[in-house]
Amino acid sequence: MVDSSVWIDFFNYYKSEEADELQNLVEHNNVNNIFICPTIYMEVLRGIKNDNTFYDVKETLLNFSILNNDIMEITNNAINIYRMLRKKGITIRKQNDCLIASYAIRNNIQVFHKDQDFELIAKETKLKIHNL
Question: What is the mean pLDDT of each run of 10 residues along the chain (132 residues)?
Answer without folding.
Answer: 96 94 87 92 96 97 95 98 98 96 98 96 98 86
